[in-house]
Write a structure and sequence with these properties.
330 residues; alpha+beta; six-stranded antiparallel β-sheet; four-stranded antiparallel β-sheet; 27% strand; binds 7N-methyl-8-hydroguanosine-5'-diphosphate
Length: 330
């Protein structure tokens, strides 16, 4: 059987860490650096839940909105996937309570040692209205965005600074945060990028591998800004990203889904690398554009993404949806 466990080498949000003590809440002793990973007092013990933003029984995830030291905060709690190499330990060090037995069938409650019961916890604090809305379960609506709609509705909306702050992206590019998590960097100012684990991935197993490549070039907001001029950058990300993931995680390109989101949440060009077979949030056809397709489209038409009509879902509280409605486009 394939070993899907990541051999760990090392393991921020756009938040004000001084107020909310974000870094110290992580409890992974392998991570090191900057207090990240250090075991510490539970900074979340003072968290007061105001409401549940979403709950997903299948993905074993709950997202809460509440207050932490008088600041609005969003907390995401997620049970993590099993790792094969810990199974022996899980059986050895646990107690077993029988629920029912019938013929050859029996069900139990296995109580493993706390170490094997870690809950991946993400804290956004202080959380803005946008964060609270992002994590809230909402109805979605498909939008058709023509070239003209982009110029008259979407672009002014992006330029109005009403989108999410890019502070966390700049922190990564300027080596102010997550430095020890960088998996690969090509420093070239035109074609270079930083590849690192997405904060949705705990890096303990490749089954749910999720990395992002953030480009060094500034001012490429999204797919819409791409022209044939950017082909060397895109090809570089695809090739070096795939090569690095093969070397580091033994995952060949035939097992990788490499794509861009449109619309993204953060308007600084970045590419998602997820494992094929892992149902990563946002990998569906309504939002994900395969990087290989993007490259081919730009090779056949240098202005492809400038001119075409794009389709994507927006959620009922998205400000961009209101703009489309105000313009009579929905
Ligand atoms: P997106 O397509 O702009 O938006 O992707 P989405 O979040 O709606 O998918 C941004 C990606 O960056 C997502 O996959 C996020 O999980 C990831 N991400 C967001 N933040 C704030 C961080 C961070 O601080 N560090 C890392 N490593 N990843 C992040």
């Amino acid at each position: 059987m394939a070993d899907t466990t990541v051999k760990r080498e090392r393991g921020s949000e756009e938040t004000n860490e001084l107020h909310c003590e974000v870094k110290k809440t992580k409890v992974d002793d392998n991570n090191g650096g900057d207090g990240v990973g250090a075991k510490s007092q539970n900074a979340l013990s003072g968290f007061k839940t105001s409401n549940v933003l979403s709950v997903n029984a299948r993905e074993k995830r709950i997202v809460l909105h509440g207050k932490l030291a008088d600041e609005d905060a969003v907390v995401i709690l997620e049970k993590t996937p099993f790792t094969e190499d810990t199974m022996d330990q899980v059986f050895k060090g646990s107690t077993l309570k029988l629920d029912m037995k019938n013929y050859i069938y029996s069900t139990y409650q296995l109580q493993a040692s706390p170490h094997y019961n870690e809950i991946k916890t993400t804290l956004v604090c202080p959380a803005t209205e946008k964060h609270i809305s992002k994590y809230k379960h909402q109805e979605s609506f498909f939008v058709e965005e023509t070239k003209k709609d982009y110029e008259t509705i979407t672009l002014p909306f992006i330029e109005d600074q009403t989108t999410f702050s890019l502070e966390w992206v700049y922190n990564i590019l300027q080596k102010k945060a997550e430095v020890e998590r960088i998996v690969y960097e090509d420093p070239d100012p035109d074609t270079g990028f930083i590849l690192l684990p997405d904060f949705k991935w705990n890096q303990k197993q490749v089954d749910d591998l999720y990395l992002i490549a953030i480009v060094h070039r500034m001012n490429i907001r999204s797919l819409r800004d791409l022209t044939a001029e950017h082909l060397p950058l895109l090809v570089n990300i695809l090739q070096k990203g795939q090569m690095t993931i093969l070397e580091r995680y033994s995952l060949p390109s035939s097992k990788l889904r490499v794509y861009l989101h449109y619309q993204p949440s953060y308007y600084h060009l970045h590419v998602h690398f997820t494992k094929l077979g892992y149902d990563a949030p946002g990998c569906g056809v309504e939002r994900a554009h395969l990087l290989s397709d993007v490259i081919q489209n730009l090779q056949s038409d240098p202005q492809y993404y400038k001119n075409r009509t794009m389709y994507f879902p927006l959620r009922e509280e998205d400000k961009l949806l209101s703009k489309f409605k105000e313009a009579g486009r929905l």
